[in-house]
Amino acid sequence: xxxxxxxxxxxxxxxxxxxxxxxxxxxxxxxxxxxxxxxxxxxxxxxxxxxxxxxxxxxxxxxxxxxxxxxxxxxxxxxxxxxxxxxxxxxxxxxxxxxxxxxxxxxxxxxxxxxxxxxxxxxxxxxxxxxxxxxxxxxxxxxxxxxxxxxxxxxxxxxxxxxxxxxxxxxxxxxxxxxxxxxxxxxxxxxxxxxxxxxxxxxxxxxxxxxxxxxxxxxxxxxxxxxxxxxxxxxxxxxxxxxxxxxxxxxxxxxxxxxxxxxxxxxxxxxxxxxxxxxxxxxxxxxxxxxxxxxxxxxxxxxxxxxxxxxxxxxxxxxxxxxxxxxxxxxxxxxxxxxxxxxxxxxxxxxxxxxxxxxxxxxxxxxxxxxxxxxxxxxxxxxxxxxxxxxxxxxxxxxxxxxxxxxxxxxxxxxxxxxxxxxxxxxxxxxxxxxxxxxxxxxxxxxxxxxxxxxxxxxxxxxxxxxxxxxxxxxxxxxxxxxxxxxxxxx
Length: 491
Ligand code: SF4
Description:
It contains 25 helices and 4 strands. The protein has a 4-stranded antiparallel beta sheet with strand order 1-2-4-3. Iron/sulfur cluster (SF4) binds next to helix 15, helix 20, helix 21, helix 24 and helix 25.
């Protein structure tokens, strides 16, 4: 997949070989990823494909952490799959799509094989992605996929005659489980006759020793006969996903052991290190000079602060209390406001008004001590870098605030009592909701907690599921404003 030495690009020969890869190299749009791809790709492809897959996995991770069902997760993830990781059954460039799918999967194996926790997360999210994709396949494709992996699965399909002879027993045993599995959010439940017909015509049953499916047996989701469980197609995806997860978990351990050989490569390591920071490492590209046209006078208006995430609200509260912010907090809030559309002139007006409000700092001192700092943020001083607003990952990587400081992420830095009080101010006070947030915090899933709060406080305006995992304070702000204007577009 890539060279293990420091040899740079040796020529175009290998890239030309890519063109010779055909449909047969990637026979299905669903895969157990048994064999690593062997073609060469560019470093840019290596990184951007992995980032695209991460975008999908982050959304899945967020949905699972917030207790979404597979069906709800599917609704959120489908548009992202279409955009970042399409795998069509025909038409378009299906070889290119599948090649990207393979490479991005294998790249992320390298990224997430390093610790137990990362491996567990990756396996859980990839297994969920596998289920979602399996459900998107046509019945024939599902059948073909199972047939192609018969050696691995050891599944025994029951013959049509056997099925016909037991149709009534199968229906009687499986009707509730099938009704739940087939229920669509927006459709009425299937009538008994429709369900009976479905069992006869659509379901392909497999027969397995019951010891291989203890969970399905415990939940009474299968028909049992003489030590065998009869499992309908609708429930087979969980079995497939379990096989997928086991294989992937074992492969990740092998990858981890092979990693030292890769450590020689100084091109890939920085990329892998960047990607492996955690599942929130994909950045929302907040425009550093967004065109919202925020004015100094409007920054503190409720119509604007209503859309701020908790970190920005906390910074504003400190600013209001002290008429001052220390360096870290100034950077965090200053860049957030810049991303929210506060231009440099309005920013200088805003900060000067706030810092001189109590008279402890006069205008001369402000100009001498702080003006440079704010102009620097906008790339008008020093190295003239147009700094971007900090994302959640950057904020969470900074040291925790000490006494008198207010930068950071409140979900990480506030005590439980203070956090509960802050949540109440944002309208999140239902004990069930608050407990959900506190549980996320206990698990150190701070961006999940923030996403949960976003969802709760915007519930009334969200008319359909959307991908929204919060990885950036400005993403929170932008999404919130979009919802307010009812201009939400699924990306
Ligand atoms: Fe701010 Fe991100 Fe923490 Fe939310 S998760 S409060 S946006 S730093």
